[in-house]
Amino acid sequence: MVSVQQGFDPRDFALVAFGGAGPLHANALGRLTGAWPVIVPPGPGLLCALGDATTNRRDESARTVLRRFADLTGGDLAGVLQELAEDAGQRLAAQGVPRGEQTTGYQVDVRYHGQGFEIPVDVDPAWLADADAALTRLGEAFDAEHDRLFSFLLGVDHELVNARATVTGRHDVAPVALPAGDGDPAAARVADHTVYVGGEHVPAVVYDRARLRAGDVVRGPAIVTEMDSTTLVLPGHVATVHVAGSLLITPTEG
Questions:
Q1: What pTM does this model have?
Q2: 36, 112, 215, 249: most buried by Cβ count inside 10 Å?
């Protein structure tokens, strides 16, 4: 509901299931929203902990500016963002991330003059190289986002409220590559079970996820078990094992 209220059509996105219970309901939610594929990553019940352990180091500097575009130049904008980036970059370097391994991103909060709220807009670093056009491009990006969110524009000057620079240090994570299978998940089959789906009991196959191989296709109704979660594949759907270990659930038709 939040995504739709923000102007996003779930059919334009894939759906990622995480948590111990998420994969149990994800296939049904994908069918409800039309978001395909439904992606069940390896260890979905541990995904938050894994993200914390593998995330890049990051530092951010922010500043309130509160100036109308008419009283601002592209050079002013570039100067503020670069100063913020320098501050954040120095702090990250002090944590052991060399400057050559840092990546910088810029974002500003913009509103129409007189509005009581602002919208965050990502700033393309290439805009800052052209001081004469930087504010024009920023205004166009804000207008496009405002129109997407609210379906109207105001013919008044823009106002820059806050500026942020985020500096990120790279964290190398070893990729996962499952051995190739032949598409048949029979080697991972551990049991037969009955599941209650669509108002009736139907026979299903239970698979051990640790035994699945890249390219294996699990046809629903099926249950894929692992230490931290359980994935339900509904009738009329298949789960294809990606080489990186994720299950990609899609309808067999439509």
A1: 0.65
A2: 249
- Per-residue pLDDT of 93-105, as tens digits, reads 998 888 888 999 9
Which has the closest alpha carbon to 187: 216, 146, 215?
Answer: 216
Give, as one character, the DSSP assignment of residue 186.
G
Residue type for 61, please?
A: S
Identity of the amino acid at 40: V
Please, are residues 163 and 80 in contact by the beta-carbon 8 Å criterion? yes
**Cα–Cα dist 60/185, whole Å:** 46
Nearest to 162 by CA among 73, 92, 80: 80
Q: Residue 254: pLDDT above 80?
A: no
